[in-house]
């Protein structure tokens, strides 16, 4: 069974997809997976529409938004892979006693590359009794730019994912003040496909889910065996492979 699988974008929290390939788990399920890259976050969805790919991955929120816009949207999602929000708020090292409500008085920048992190954080803010609209924020810069702003002292708190978090911690320019994973379980990332693809290739779609489950079982069995974990990690940016393992555990 052949499947053309396109990554959403390169990120440490997508390691289960890469590890399933590196460990031969897709092949064990009888799948011949062609991995394809995307030029920018979300671009792979266009590949689903024009038939150049069979599957990609991303937030179910992307599919829900598509169905909100068009009740006949052809997109479906299946197979939970990332089960918690992997984004962080990183603040100045001298920022003490941080609470989400402090954002109203701080120079704050959110992720611009994808919509889900800010949408989820808005929920947390509302639970904390704050109207997200009352927060002045930088919303049009990349995470790399925002990390640079934190290092330069132009920002107080920035919303990031790995490896930018590790870069801030290693460089001594910031500390984690809030982990969105603390919100609890949520279906943050799944496979995304066209409804016709799932109907036409049900065995292949079931096989990628089984391979992912096998990868999760393998990871749970590794415990502290960091060498084996490093062996299946892909390049996630300007961090060493030792740091990459710490990212994976975090």
Textual characterization of the structure:
By secondary structure, the chain is an alpha/beta fold. The protein folds into 2 domains: 2-83 and 187-249, Periplasmic binding protein-like II (D-Maltodextrin-Binding Protein, domain 2); 88-183, D-Maltodextrin-Binding Protein, domain 2, CATH 3.40.190. It contains 11 helices and 10 strands. The strands form 2 sheets. A 5-stranded mixed β-sheet has the order 2-1-3-10-4, sandwiched between helices. Strands 7-6-8-5-9 form a 5-stranded mixed β-sheet, with helices on one face. Helix 5 (116-127) links the parallel strand 6 (108-109) and strand 7 (137-138). Helix 1 (15-22) crosses helix 9. Residues 236-240 have low confidence and may be disordered.
Can you lay out the helices and strands and say which pair or pack?
Blueprint: E1 2-6, H1 15-22, H2 25-28, E2 32-36, H3 44-50, E3 55-58, H4 60-69, E4 75-82, E5 88-91, E6 108-109, H5 116-127, E7 137-138, H6 143-152, E8 157-160, H7 164-170, E9 175-179, E10 189-194, H8 195-200, H9 202-222, H10 226-231, H11 241-249
Parallel strand pairs: 1-2, 1-3, 6-7, 6-8
Antiparallel strand pairs: 3-10, 4-10, 5-8, 5-9
- Determine and state the CATH class of the largest domain: Alpha Beta
Distance between the first and last residues' Cα: 35 Å
**What is the CATH T-level topology of the largest domain?**
D-Maltodextrin-Binding Protein, domain 2
Total discrete domains: 2
Q: Which segments are poorly predicted (pLDDT under 50) over 5 or more consecutive residues?
A: 236-240
Number of helices: 11
CA gyration radius, whole angstroms: 19 Å
Main beta sheet, described?
5 strands, mixed
Q: Which geometry do the CA atoms define?
A: globular
Query: H/E order of the elements?
Result: EHHEHEHEEEHEHEHEEHHHH
User: Looking at this structure, what is the CATH superfamily of the largest domain?
Assistant: Periplasmic binding protein-like II
Helix and strand content put the structural class at alpha/beta
CATH architecture of the largest domain: 3-Layer(aba) Sandwich
**Beta-strand level of the residues, as a percent range?**
15-25%
């Amino acid at each position: 069974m052949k499947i053309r699988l396109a990554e959403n974008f390169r990120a440490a929290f997508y390691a289960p997809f890469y590890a399933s390939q590196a460990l031969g788990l897709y092949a064990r399920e009888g799948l011949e997976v062609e991995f394809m890259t995307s030029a920018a976050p979300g671009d792979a969805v266009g590949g689903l529409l024009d038939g150049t790919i069979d599957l990609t991955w991303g937030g179910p929120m992307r599919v829900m938004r598509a169905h909100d816009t068009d009740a006949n949207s052809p997109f479906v999602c299946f197979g939970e892979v990332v089960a918690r929000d992997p984004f962080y708020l990183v603040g100045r090292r001298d920022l003490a006693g941080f609470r989400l409500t402090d954002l109203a008085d701080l120079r704050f920048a959110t992720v611009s590359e994808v919509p889900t992190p800010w949408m989820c954080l808005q929920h947390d803010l509302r639970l904390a009794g704050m109207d997200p609209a009352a927060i002045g924020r930088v919303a049009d810069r990349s995470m790399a730019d925002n990390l640079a702003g934190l290092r330069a002292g132009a920002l107080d708190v920035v919303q990031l994912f790995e490896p930018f978090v590790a870069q801030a911690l290693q460089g001594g320019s910031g500390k984690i003040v809030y982990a969105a994973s603390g919100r609890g379980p949520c279906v943050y990332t799944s496979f995304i496909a066209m409804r016709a693809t799932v109907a036409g290739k049900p065995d292949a779609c079931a096989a990628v889910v089984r391979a992912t489950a096998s990868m999760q079982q393998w990871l749970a069995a590794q415990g502290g065996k960091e060498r084996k974990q490093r062996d299946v990690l892909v390049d996630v940016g300007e961090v060493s492979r030792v740091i990459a393992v710490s990212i994976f555990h975090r």
